[in-house]
TrEMBL record:
Species of provenance: Heyndrickxia faecalis
Region called Disordered, residue ranges: 154-175
InterPro entries xrefs: Cell_Wall_Dynamics_Protein (IPR052354), MGlyc_endo_b_GlcNAc-like_dom (IPR002901), SH3-like_bac-type (IPR003646), SH3-like_dom_sf (IPR036028)
Protein name: SH3 domain-containing protein
PROSITE patterns: SH3B (PS51781)
Annotated SH3b domain residues: 10-75, 88-153, 172-234, 283-360
PANTHER family assigned to the protein according to its UniProt record, in alphabetical order: FAMILY PROTEIN, PUTATIVE-RELATED (PTHR34408), GLYCOSYL HYDROLASE FAMILY 19 DOMAIN-CONTAINING PROTEIN HI_1415 (PTHR34408:SF1)
Length: 544
């Protein structure tokens, strides 16, 4: 049988999420990838492989990726027959406010992390094994340290206190703006190679500043710019900004409780090491001294260890200095980000419009994506699309597409620039399919392992035989999904407060990352910044 291939070994598993919730099937192993389906509790799936936190599965006729921790070997709702139920007790997570308890796959710190349980969360306790106890939380069975469980909710007597605790900042960055056309370099030196030239007024995320150089991020690229050409004040523009308020019949706390039921995720870089572990080499850098040290997810020894220990001699970047809950000084350090379950306070931070509405960049998550920017085609060609490959000179097509489909022009252009690599991708520049050259400007249908062929097939099926046809035709797909469902701001695409307020549950959300909407707005701001005349309409939610 040398000519026949061996079929891939598969297993059958079942979706194990909370009742009334669902598991998102995605096109790639990323929470920012497109959603293929929402799988209900108990649905049977075929598992092809598991890599890290993700499992490649087939559900119905769709193949994609899900979080492996929400799969189980048996249907969670199947009847166990006549077996005797296991005796259990109920306890509550009792960790410091703002911290969390790690649920592991085995009774050891080397066990795989299955979930992060927040303070006050109820768990079902099965058996104890030394300092560890077997529990079930959120439908997931694993092990936690017994010393962090109590018989009563630690906040039961002061139920509202946790809602008033200090909320975390989303990232250890600040937004600043360039005061001139500025070189973004690979290193903090004028001799370092130039990554790209940033336009005057460009918003950048600043991670650190030292010796006249700032480490910044723009459009997913990280580099260095001179601090002499950065300011905290955004430039004044001729654009017209209109804000409208949309009121919801639920409180911010109620909305946060609804979101917590669908396991929102965060990759916030909250990693700390005690100050006496570090020998400073500057005010933002240091070297690990006096042996090997644990990294923790909070400032204090009561917080949990994360990742491997840092060995003596390891260089670290220091983001901030804080007083720990153990009386020591701790450094927040730059460390590999890892996805984890978000705490309620972290969710509330991103849900609360008041944290962003006065920020000229972050407020654009409330940009009404169905409102016109009222742009001039000549200005767009000269100031935005010039030098953008196949998209150069195509402003009229974008304005037509926006008008026909009721989409904000800047949002449409930003989407195309991102998907085509500024007009340079293979799909954007034309692919032969069934004898015809077709174009795809938004990556529509480009998934399932062979992005170019699948994206070309979709373009062929829809007659996108010119760049203009692809720009105009593809806009219809963008409009029909989230915008057509009334989720016409990035904030509503992420959180869908209309469904939460009407039905009391979370549904049809674009991502599980709590910072998704927050992270999407830089490119939109910087495109608006290039123009002299435009309209912006913000729809800002208001909660009771």
């Amino acid at each position: 049988n040398a000519g026949t291939s061996t079929p891939a070994k598969t297993t059958t598993k079942y979706v194990n999420v909370d009742k009334g919730s669902h598991l998102i099937l995605r096109s790639k192993t990323s929470t920012s990838s497109s959603i293929l389906a929402s799988l209900p509790r108990g649905e049977k799936v075929t598992v092809y492989s598991i890599s890290g936190a993700w499992a490649k599965v087939k559900a119905g006729n769709k193949t994609g990726y899900v979080h492996a921790s929400f799969l189980t070997n048996s249907n969670p709702d199947s009847n166990a027959g006549t077996s005797t139920p296991v005796q259990t007790t109920t306890k509550y997570v009792n960790v410091d406010k703002g911290s969390h308890l790690v649920l592991r796959s085995k009774a050891s710190r080397s066990g795989k992390i299955l979930a992060s349980l927040q303070r006050g969360e109820k768990v079902t306790v099965y058996t104890a094994s030394g300092p560890w106890v077997k529990v079930k939380a959120r439908g997931i069975t694993g092990y936690v340290l017994a010393s962090y469980l109590s018989n009563a909710d630690p906040d039961a007597s002061t139920a509202d206190d946790s809602n008033n605790s200090s909320e975390p900042t989303p990232d250890s960055t600040v937004t600043k703006y360039t005061t001139a056309d500025l070189n973004l370099r690979k290193g903090p030196s004028k001799s370092a190679s130039v990554i790209e030239v940033l336009d005057k007024g460009t918003a950048v995320k600043v991670y650190s500043e030292e010796d006249g150089w700032a480490k910044v991020e723009i459009g997913g690229k990280i580099g260095y710019v001179s601090t002499n050409y950065l300011t905290s004040a955004a430039k004044q523009s001729n654009g017209k900004v209109t804000s409208i308020v949309k009121k919801y019949d639920l409180s911010l706390d109620e909305l946060a409780n609804i979101q917590m039921k669908v396991s929102p995720q965060t990759d916030t870089n909250e990693r700390y090491i005690r100050s006496d572990a570090i020998k400073l080499t500057s005010h933002t850098t240091g070297v690990v001294q006096n042996g090997n040290w644990h990294i923790r997810d909070g400032a204090g020894t009561k917080n949990h260890e994360v990742g491997e220990t840092l060995k003596e001699g390891t260089k670290v970047t220091i983001l901030s200095t804080v007083k720990g809950n153990d009386g020591y000084t701790w450094y927040q350090i730059s460390y590999n980000k890892a996805w984890k379950n978000a705490t309620k306070n972290e969710v509330k931070y991103y849900l609360n419009p008041n944290n962003f509405v006065s920020d000229p960049v972050r407020s654009l998550q409330f940009l009404k994506l169905t409102s016109t920017a009222n742009l001039n085609a000549t200005e767009v060609n000269q100031k935005i699309l010039a030098g953008k490959g196949i998209l150069a000179g195509k402003a009229s097509a974008f304005l037509t597409a926006a008008k026909q489909n009721g989409i904000n022009e800047i949002y449409l252009i930003a989407h195309a620039l991102l998907e085509t690599g500024n007009g340079t991708s293979q799909l954007a520049n034309g692919v032969k399919y069934n004898g015809k050259t077709v174009y795809n400007m938004y990556g529509t249908g480009a998934n399932d392992g062979n992005a170019v062929q699948n994206g070309a097939r979709y373009a062929y099926q829809h007659g996108w035989t010119t760049p203009e046809a692809a720009i105009i035709g593809g806009a219809k797909f963008i409009s029909s999904n989230y915008l057509g469902a009334g989720q016409d701001t990035l904030y509503k695409m992420r959180w869908n407060p209309d469904v939460a307020a009407t039905y009391g549950y979370a549904s049809h959300q674009y991502a599980t990352d709590i910072g998704w909407a927050y992270k999407q707005v830089d490119e939109i701001y910087n495109l608006y910044n290039l123009l002299d005349n435009y309209n912006i309409t913000l729809e800002v939610p208001s909660y009771q």
